[in-house]
């Protein structure tokens, strides 16, 4: 189980770093496209490269390794469900970044910077919340309608 946990933490670090970098790359590339008529290369954007070759594989490894830690450890706690909910939000944010990259490459720059920063703040908030939940391991609230 320790190896799964180490793999989970390392891949989570790579995923979070890459997923925070993608909106910054989108904004930077959008600013460059406003100044230049055409990108100098035809390979796509650097944001797509980071998204498809770094962030997405790291996300898959982090989720699989985290699931294995959960299955092998056989622990069902309240904080774990809160963490899984936050990770689901991070995954939705990750998928939304793919849509931003598609809009960027289609040269649809209207509101792209705003959406990039919204996703950056949402993802950052989820990351901080996940770290807090994992470290604090809050107990189930008394007003909660059901027990685990």
From TrEMBL:
Reactions this protein catalyses:
protoporphyrinogen IX + 3 A = protoporphyrin IX + 3 AH2
A GO BP term, please? protoporphyrinogen IX biosynthetic process
Report TM segments.
Answer: 6-28, 49-72, 78-102, 114-135
Q: How does it sit in the membrane?
A: Multi-pass membrane protein
Q: Which InterPro entries match?
A: HemJ-like
User: What GO cellular component entries does it have?
Assistant: plasma membrane
Tell me the compartments it is located in: Cell membrane
* Chief place where the protein resides: membrane
Please name the pathway: Porphyrin-containing compound metabolism; protoporphyrin-IX biosynthesis; protoporphyrin-IX from protoporphyrinogen-IX: step 1/1
UniProt keywords (A-Z) are:
Cell membrane, Heme, Iron, Membrane, Metal-binding, Oxidoreductase, Transmembrane, Transmembrane helix
Could you say which cofactors this protein requires?
heme b
Any GO MF annotation of the entry: metal ion binding
EC number(s) given by UniProt? 1.3.99.-
Q: What does the cofactor field's note say?
A: Binds 1 heme b (iron(II)-protoporphyrin IX) group per subunit.
The family this protein is said to belong to: Belongs to the HemJ family.
Q: What does this protein do?
A: Catalyzes the oxidation of protoporphyrinogen IX to protoporphyrin IX.
PANTHER family assigned: PROTOPORPHYRINOGEN IX OXIDASE, UPF0093 MEMBRANE PROTEIN SLR1790
Its protein name is Protoporphyrinogen IX oxidase
């Amino acid at each position: 189980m320790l190896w799964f946990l180490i793999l989970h933490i390392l891949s989570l670090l790579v995923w979070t770093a890459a997923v925070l970098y993608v909106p910054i790359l989108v904004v930077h590339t959008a600013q460059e496209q406003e100044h230049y008529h055409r990108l100098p290369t035809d390979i796509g954007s650097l944001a797509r490269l980071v998204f498809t070759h770094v962030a997405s594989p790291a996300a898959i490894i982090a989720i699989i390794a985290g699931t294995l830690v959960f299955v092998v450890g056989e622990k069902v706690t309240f904080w774990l469900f809160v963490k899984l909910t936050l990770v689901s939000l991070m995954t939705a944010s990750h998928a939304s970044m793919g849509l931003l990259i598609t809009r960027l490459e289609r040269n649809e720059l209207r509101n792209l910077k705003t959406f990039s920063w919204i996703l950056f703040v949402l993802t950052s908030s989820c990351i901080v919340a996940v770290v807090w939940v994992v470290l604090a391991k809050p107990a189930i609230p008394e007003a909660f309608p059901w027990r685990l």
